[in-house]
Design brief:
Layout (H helix, E strand, L loop, with lengths): L2 H15 L2 H10 L2 H8 L4 H10 L2 H10 L2 H10 L2 H10 L2 H10 L2 H10 L2 H11 L6 H4 L6 E3 L4 H11 L8 E5 L5 E6 H5 L7 H4 L6 E3 L4 H10 L4 E5 L5 E6 H19 L14 H28 L1 H6 L7 H25 L7 H30 L5 H31 L9 H24 L2
Parallel strand pairs: 1-2, 4-5
Antiparallel strand pairs: 2-3, 5-6
Length: 451
């Protein structure tokens, strides 16, 4: 029998028997994420019994991993005192996360159950703009004074560590409350009792401001392989910290939004199976209508060149190939440049480097495609003359050059006008390159044939 099924049945049996000791032992020993998956399937009153049974620390962790639907159902039946117990067990960042997901009526119920201190903290954290370090930071950190000796530091860790989200990294403040260094628990444990914190702290540390964009925080933590990073105000007063699990969630959300935009879908906040069919259709419809209208422009261009096509009918055979090649070439370039902006931190300063690199790539790939297409037409397309083969192959070279440059330019221009580069992705690039490829094709054909 599946291990998860056995565990589920065991938990249900312990709840039925009111076996508090064994139930608490399960939640102390097993992974809280796996347990949350099981609890999600239980009756709401069984979940409440679990919350009454397990320790405060487990309550906070378990609650933060439950599905939003389960959380909402729980809050509907919990009374004010029960909600207060849950609030007291949550870290500040988890508290803000779940509050922002709640409908207005439940959010109001939670706030009414919160203590005055919690309300003050919530209001302070909610004032920070979305997608900034301040909006995702936790205020549950360990701080030490640089004047502390090792025994003082260990005593503070023992006293306040249970309330901190992590004790692996402690933040060192001066007399004015400004961040002046960090020290790890390992450094403290292996230091001599004669040492002061200022003697062992690391003054070469990374920190971010509350206004720093979360994507920038993610890039910094990835670059320096950080598990924790301090968040300060402009005067370097310590206000909070961001842990790696928080930034992973943020980067996943950002990646999801970018994938949606690159596929011409308006980003949605819910998982695919949880989102309604109407919402999914709505997220795609606007872009589909815009792209449909833009594709109609291709038909207009072809119609306006019907005289040329009547004179040289073979030209129409190669239109789908040219449009496809242009779209693919542009999509390749835009995908690489967008990835460079998001992951490799390309900036406006790299504009000419990016354009030059893509131009060289376009010249190389376009030349190869020119040769291959010439050979293909001459050998395998018997009813087409050599002049048509040259026109088509030159058009391939030209559209690849234009498409590659467009694919590089659009995302970089997005940086200049300060919009998400992912918007300038495949559908938009493909449509634009289709139009340019047809215009270039007919223009070159008229020029070459003297029509």
């Amino acid at each position: 029998m599946d291990g998860k099924l056995i565990l589920t049945q065991t938990i249900q049996e312990y709840i039925k028997q009111k076996n508090i000791i064994d139930l608490r032992e399960i939640f102390d020993e097993y992974n809280i994420v796996d347990l949350a998956d099981i609890v999600d399937q239980l009756d709401v009153y069984d979940i409440i019994f679990i919350f009454k049974t397990v320790t405060k620390d487990v309550t906070g962790q378990l609650f933060s991993y439950l599905d939003n639907d389960v959380i909402e159902h729980l809050l509907e039946v919990l009374n004010s005192d029960q909600i207060k117990v849950i609030l007291n067990s949550l870290y500040s960042d988890d508290l803000i996360d779940f509050l922002q997901e709640l409908p207005a009526n439940l959010s109001k119920k939670v706030l009414n159950s919160a203590s005055s201190q919690q309300k003050k903290l919530i209001n302070e954290l909610l004032q920070y703009q979305e997608d900034t370090a301040g909006s995702i930071m936790s205020t549950n950190y360990l701080e030490l004074s640089k004047q502390d000796n090792i025994n003082d530091a260990i005593e503070k860790i023992k006293r306040y560590g249970s309330k901190a989200e992590t004790i692996g990294t402690c933040f060192v403040l001066n007399e004015k409350g400004r961040l002046v260094g960090i020290v790890t628990l390992r450094d403290i444990l292996f230091a001599s009792e004669d040492n002061m914190i200022k003697d062992i702290m690391d003054i070469d540390y990374n920190s971010v401001f509350t206004s720093t964009d979360t994507e920038e925080v993610g890039r910094m933590m990835q670059k320096y392989d950080e598990n924790v990073i301090a968040v300060t105000d402009e005067d370097y007063h310590l206000l909070g910290m961001i842990t790696i699990d928080d930034i992973i969630d943020v980067m996943q959300e950002e990646a999801t939004e970018d994938i949606h935009r690159m596929a011409a879908i308006t980003p949605i906040e819910f998982p695919y199976l949880e989102a309604s069919t109407f919402k999914l259709a709505q997220s795609r419809l606007v872009w589909l209508m815009l792209l449909m209208v833009s594709y109609a422009l291709s038909s207009i261009i072809i119609t306006n060149n019907d005289q040329l096509l009547m004179m040289v009918p073979s030209l129409i055979t190669f239109i789908p190939m040219l449009m496809g090649t242009a779209g693919n070439a542009g999509s390749q370039a835009s995908a690489m440049v967008i990835r460079g902006i998001i992951v490799d931190s390309l900036t406006i300063k790299d504009f000419f480097k990016v354009v030059f690199k893509e131009m060289m790539i376009a010249l190389m790939t376009g030349s190869v495609l020119f040769i291959v297409n010439m050979i293909r037409i001459v050998i395998f397309v018997n009813d087409v003359g050599f002049d048509i083969a040259v026109i088509v192959s030159l058009s391939v070279f030209l559209v690849v050059l234009i498409a590659k440059l467009s694919g590089a330019l659009f995302p970089m221009l997005a940086l200049i006008i300060k919009v998400d580069p992912a918007i300038m992705a495949s559908p938009l690039i493909t449509t634009t390159c289709d139009l340019i490829s047809i215009l270039a094709y007919f223009g070159l054909a008229r020029l070459w044939l003297g029509i």
